[in-house]
Amino acid sequence: MKYESSAGSQPAAHPGSPSLRSTTTVDLVVPVYDEEATLTSSVETLLAAGTGPGIDVTIIIADNASTDKTPIIAATLAAEHPNVEYVRLEQKGRGRALSRVWQASTADIVAYTDVDLATDIRVLEPMVEVIRSGLADVAIASRLHPGLEIERGIRREIISRCYNRLLKLSLGVGFSDAQCGFKAMSNRAAQELLPQVKDNEWFFDTELLARAEWAGYRIHEFDTD
User: How many domains does the chain have?
Assistant: First the structure.
């Protein structure tokens, strides 16, 4: 697997990038709302996937005011697994959940995945590697690169391509996919950028990435040979 940067090839490391060390801690957030039917299987899949040596992942279930049995299931998973945590928010909004958990994080890298695990979860390890090595500050999976295994319908594909094309034209950004539900960034980048983000819901990802690029943080996307 290789990396593509929206800001050019192999730039010098950003001053805020974490240095390569023996162990890198990662807080992987899974935002959920009324996901009683899929939460257990998704978390178990994440736990079974594992990561390479030197990467210590904590899965944090961020509940966006669920009204079904999601809180009970999430609390049970957290009690059963030492590397699973549960956070409850009384307001809806994926962006609100991510911002709350990421700003409170002390991990080296913060990340998130949608609960449906539509993106191949094996992409987490190279995301972490490219950030902790200092080659990037932000890493995103892109559904618009043909090599990544992502499940989606034709209608969503067309909407996504049109939306991201519009972003390039209107905001002048270089990244190709703002809304794919698998992203990671250094903790330092998160602490600087998150207080600036105004949207707490659907537009959160787009605003966060745009502010990251405008501030000079390097964004790497993933492609395959």
Answer: 1
